[in-house]
Amino acid sequence: MELCECDIGLGEWDTGLGECDIGLGEWDTGLGELDIRLGVWDIRLGMRNIGLGELVVWDIGLGVWEYGLGVWEYGLGMWDIGLAVWNIGLGEWAIGLGEWDIGLGEWAIGLGEWAIELGESDIGLDETDIGLGL
Q: Is residue 10 part of a domain?
């Protein structure tokens, strides 16, 4: 796995990640081009990775394997950049993937206000994300 230029200080696992991801990548994507806006794959992430427990996702920046933290660490990569901002230590905000965890908390439902920025496909995350990680 190679670090991609866009992988903002993430690391091998956050890379392998890929080109378009803002520090996300093919793995965070599968998400591909639309990754930046949480794209199509995120929607699928909702259906395929309910709880994302089956996908053991490497918590970049945290240095530990986390289960069920898939959305931020894996799918909704935008906030995953460095995993530092909202998921520092996967603390308060990380519990249940926290309020800010798109697809898990308050912002999850409809992706809240962020949905507007995250695009139409994310708005559709509603249906699949509700229950994601619950």
A: no
pTM score, two decimals? 0.10
Per residue in 15-57, pLDDT (tens digit) is 333 333 343 333 333 333 333 333 333 333 332 332 333 333 3
Question: Is 114 contained in some domain?
Answer: yes
Which of 31, 120, 23, 11 shows the shortest CA–CA distance to 80?
Answer: 23
Q: How far apart are CA 19 and CA 105, in angstroms?
A: 28
Backbone angles phi, psi at 25, to 5 degrees: 115, 180
| Cα–Cα dist 109/125, whole Å | 8
Are 38 and 124 in contact, with CB atoms under 8 Å apart? no
Domain range for 118: 26-129
Give residue 119's pLDDT.
34
